[in-house]
Amino acid sequence: MTAKTGKNYWLMKSEPDVFSIEDLAKAPKKTTHWDGVRNYQARNFMRDSMKIGDMVFFYHSNADPSGIAGVAEVVKEGYPDFSAFDPKDVHFDEKSDSKNPTWMMVDIKHVETFKNLLPLEELRKSSALKDMVLLQKGSRLSVQPVTAEQWQAVLKLAKSKLA
Q1: Count: domains in the chain
Q2: Structural domain of residue 25, as residue ranges?
Q3: What is the pTM of this model?
């Protein structure tokens, strides 16, 4: 969290053919729950650290090219991921118990779709982003922290209206 803004910054990954930033922008109230996360570290970020008002980079993964597509805001803090309890859902987890849930989710709201996707290769070229979790070898987390400095650097690269 930055002392200046009181916010944390995050990057959340989604495959655009499954759920894109355009889907988020078209969702009712431009808001959706971020379900289906099945990694303990990513779950812990959503459960323990993500707060209302935190800002999120929406990253299109497994795309050609992959990159940051825009910005969202956390509008509901961590709560049980109900998709884990539904045997018909692709994210069903038979070991998850509704009385003591394993998996959590947050709600996010669309803020901005960048005019142009900011490709991973362009992010790699920025010295200001050399320590960004996304750019570290072997980093595969679908939910990851972003520093305030990295946040501002990405907004500038993307020519965001938020910069």
Answers
A1: 1
A2: 9-157
A3: 0.94
Share above pLDDT 70 across residues of the chain, in percent, rounded to a whole number? 97
DSSP string, 38-105: --HHHHHIIIII--TT-EEEEEE-SSTT-EEEEEEEEEEEEEE-GGGG-TTSTT--TT-BTTB-S-EE
Spatial contact of 57 and 10, defined as CB atoms under 8 Å apart: yes
Residue 2 — pLDDT band, cuts 50, 70, 90? low
**Three-class SS state of 129:** helix
Contact at 8 Å (CB) between 82 and 124?
no
Q: Is residue 4 part of a domain?
A: no
Q: What is the CATH number of the domain that holds 49?
A: 3.10.590.10
Q: Per residue in 28-80, pLDDT tens?
A: 999 999 999 999 999 999 999 999 999 999 999 999 999 999 999 999 999 99
Query: What are the φ/ψ torsions at residue 63 (nearest 5 degrees)?
Result: -125, 170
Examine residue 42 and state whether it is found in any structural domain, yes or no: yes
Residues with Cβ within 8 Å of 128's Cβ and at least 6 positions away in sequence, in order, are 149, 150, 153
Q: Are strands 9-14 and 31-33 parallel, antiparallel or unpaired?
A: unpaired
